[in-house]
Amino acid sequence: MQNLKLKYEKIDTLHSSTQLREVKNVICNDWLDILLFRKKPADLTATSFGDGLKHLVIANVIVGALIGILSYVSYSQVIASMEGLGGLGAALIPEPTVVSIVTSAITTPIAAVIGIVIIGAILHLFSKLFGGKGSLSNYIGVLAMINAAVTGTATLIITVIGIVAALGGAFTAVQGITGLLGFVVGLWLLILTVLATQAVQQLSRGRAIAAILLPWIIVIIIIMILVVFFIGLIGASLAGALGGAIPGGLPV
User: Fold this and answer.
1) Crossing angle between the packed helical segments 156-167 and 175-200, to the nearest 10 degrees
2) For 168, phi and psi rounded to 5 degrees?
3) Segment 173-215, tens digit of pLDDT
4) 184 with 176: CB under 8 angstroms?
5) What are the φ/ψ torsions at residue 198 (nearest 5 degrees)?
6) In angstroms, what CA-CA distances link 76 with 48, 71, 87, 101?
7) Looking at residue 252, what is its pLDDT?
8) CB-CB contact of 78 with 93 (8 Å)
9) Could you give the C-alpha distances from 237 to 91, 150, 192, 240, in angstroms and in order?
10) Of 175, 143, 180, 144, which Cα lies nearest the Cα of 60?
11) CA dihedral 24, 30, 32, 38 (to 10 degrees)
12) How far is CA 198 from CA 33, 120, 128, 195, in A?
């Protein structure tokens, strides 16, 4: 009986070590290769919808948990940096708990999957307008894989830097650095997305760039129109209020 127990313990140990090796291979051989451009977006065109989403979920579960931990360990420093607002900071930002860490690990991958499906569908539509030939499922799978690679390596490293800084009481001091790194990572992700669009949709570089940027240009224009509209609405309301408050109205 003892030998049987030892045998099962050995099997469990081997299974655990195998799983760890698989995770290490995913991070080092897949994600890191994509991030460092050793594996180009054109090499990922065979990625299926399911494989891409699997990698995206794994990466965002890890990062989601780390973001939850970062919020937990940096809370007091964030609130201290908002002391000029009185008690408003603590009122706006609830204190994180262990439950919030678990919640972050669950909601982050869900949001990532929903986001990549919506964004992928929009970019696929605009790619078609420019003559794209790829399938929607394959395109989303490749985009998910690229996002997983960036999230599972660069974003993970930035989050860990924030955690280490928070534990050392220097979270607010490194926010500028992590913010700059985040901007660089975001720009690199945009470049990889353009190259993935070019490869999967079989477009020229210029058409791929147009297919990626055009939706954002449209969104910016819509936001600008809404801002101008609301500013005009507020201005008209203030003018009406002032006109009603001043006897005889405002001078013409």
Assistant:
1) 170
2) -90, 5
3) 888 898 899 999 999 999 999 999 999 999 999 999 999 999 9
4) no
5) -60, -40
6) 43, 9, 13, 16
7) 47
8) yes
9) 31, 47, 46, 5
10) 144
11) 140
12) 19, 14, 12, 5
Whose tokens are 């499906």? That residue is 117
Q: Which amino acid, 118?
A: I
* Side-chain half-sphere CA neighbours of 214 within 13 A: 15
What DSSP string runs through 185-241? Answer: HHHHHHHHHHHHHHHHTT--HHHHHHHHHHHHHHHHHHHHHHHHHHHHHHHHHHHHH
Query: Residue 77 is encoded by which pair of tokens?
Result: 């420093």
71: left (phi over 0), alpha (psi -120 to 50) or beta: alpha
- Tell me the whole-structure pTM to 2 decimals: 0.81
Q: Using CA atoms of 220, 226, 227, 232 in order, give the dihedral in degrees to the nearest 10.
A: 150
Instruction: Say yes or no to pLDDT of 62 above 60.
Output: yes
Task: Please name the residue that has the structure tokens 């070590």.
Answer: 17
Question: What pLDDT, on a 0 to 100 scale, did the predictor assign at position 66?
Answer: 93
